[in-house]
Amino acid sequence: MTAAQPTDISATDSPAWAALHTHFGTMSAVHLRELFAQDPARGSELTLQAADLYVDYSKHRVTRETLGLLQELTSAAGLRAKIDAMFSGVHINSTENRAVLHTALRLPSDAQLVVDGQDVVADVHEVLDRMSGFADRIRSGEWTGATGERITTVVNVGIGGSDLGPVMAYEALKDYSDRGITCRFVSNIDPTDIYEKTHDLDPASTLFIIASKTFTTLETLTNARLARDWLTGGLTTKHGLSADDATAAVAKHFVAVSTNADKVSEFGIDTANMFGFWDWVGGRYSYDSAIGLSVMVAIGPDNFREMLAGFHAMDEHFRTAPFEVNAPVILGLLNVWYGDFFGSGSHAVLPYSQYLLRFPAYLQQLTMESNGKSVRLDGSPVLADTGEVFWGEPGTNGQHAFYQLLHQGTRIIPADFIGFVEPNHDLHDGDADVHDLFMSNFFAQSTALAFGRTAEEIAAEGVAPEVVPHKVMPGNRPSTSILAQKLTPSVLGQLVALYEHITFVQGVIWGINSFDQWGVELGKAMAKELAPMLSGETSTDGQDSSTATLIGHYLQGRGR
Ligand code: F6P
Description:
Layout: H1 15-27, H2 32-38, H3 42-45, E1 47-50, E2 53-56, H4 64-77, H5 79-88, E3 114-115, E4 118-119, H6 120-140, E5 153-157, H7 164-172, E6 182-186, H8 191-198, E7 206-211, H9 218-237, H10 243-248, H11 250-253, E8 254-258, H12 261-267, E9 274-276, H13 293-299, H14 301-320, H15 327-342, E10 346-351, H16 359-371, E11 389-391, H17 403-408, E12 415-420, E13 428-429, E14 432-433, H18 434-451, H19 455-460, H20 468-471, E15 479-484, H21 489-510, H22 521-534, H23 545-557
Parallel strand pairs: 5-6, 5-7, 7-8, 8-9, 10-11, 10-12, 12-15
Antiparallel strand pairs: 1-2, 2-15, 3-4, 13-14
The structure holds 6-O-phosphono-beta-D-fructofuranose.
GO molecular function: carbohydrate derivative binding; glucose-6-phosphate isomerase activity; monosaccharide binding
Function: Catalyzes the reversible isomerization of glucose-6-phosphate to fructose-6-phosphate.
Family: Belongs to the GPI family.
């Protein structure tokens, strides 16, 4: 389906945007303390249920009027039509003339979606079934390495979307994984990465998954060649295989995940051992495709499918819930409110689960590669700031590091608190339930950020007058609290889909293409151009004086 996409408009030049500007003039001076005093029901009413996620957005610097005005942006931007266009396979990634169909990766097998003449659901489930068969063979020990040993380590070699999603989900769902199989992730072309991830492994029990949508990415292809040399070298020296047998062993120790079968076979991986996906899956939206093969091997096909069902539940919420109770819509609009009206350039993501350690890093690519854009769909400059710097660390570690700035710094940084009612591990310290101790921090932090502590309250505690200003907690710092029963594969899928759709909503409001990433290309091309200068093959003549001098220092240090 290549029908023209809905009119390329953005909400940033609409009357609704202007009305929000006027409204901001009033709201910027209003404190959350007043908002809660005036509207005591907001704590239970400015909340919603999105699949299994309970979302509380009451601690935001908004009134019901603000929310109404923000909602008007959705009509100005044509959000409903754009959602329908995305889900139905219209080529909304206009600069690459591609459909954007990560939502199809999690459609149930009895769903129907034909795009560009192709039965997308059948294609997705054919690959899922092959992945499941493969994962089962690895997990059961039926698939062995060349010397007959069971595979105990899976090394995923990929970068960007071919790394961040799998490593995040592997860490997040470790509690559901087969502990007899460990996954490692090599991404950086810094040789220390592959060295550290392989030096203590036995090649006989190691499987490499080379994950690259394009199969042309310099980092991944370089690491894949290093991995192949490590494998063949190790099988020869440690296990006594002949050079020919070691080369043949690559078939038992390497599989590929890609959209590019030609490049996979050119590399030397049999396409029978390749798991495909499609150009309508963006790299940063791909870990629920075959790119998640390492995750499926770790947690098993059933858990992986449960994760997909979680994604789908959030997709359905986004597609069908009225915008007034639609989590991605409301949270996307709130991000626009802070970024464009309060001037917040950043957004903290604070998971209260150590298993979600890599979630903020994953979100960095999802949100910043998607929405770090300066022109609208028609090529005209954007009329408002786009994107935010996403960052964060799990609580409570972050509390002892950067929360000071959140609480008392001069900047307003909206924060997302993500917590779980039930622990994955129910441990007690004497009589104390440690998860309760942990979660008391989750509840305390958003409360302290919102309401703070006044000078009067602090003085009343007998604090010396000269110290009072230092102890004042201004409050009025906005946050969303997302609470789920337990971190399960389904809940992880729901969380990821939630942020995918928040990102989309923001992009639609700004009128940008959230699905291309031309900004990463120039640096890649320049690195290729500079590489021969570092080996001394070509001179730095013609480079700017800073770069030429820096390379001169490097060459001197390397004795070239
Ligand atoms: O750095 C840009 C990028 O294209 C990302 O969008 C992508 O996730 C990553 O490189 C890896 O690409 P590939 O999967 O094709 O190796």
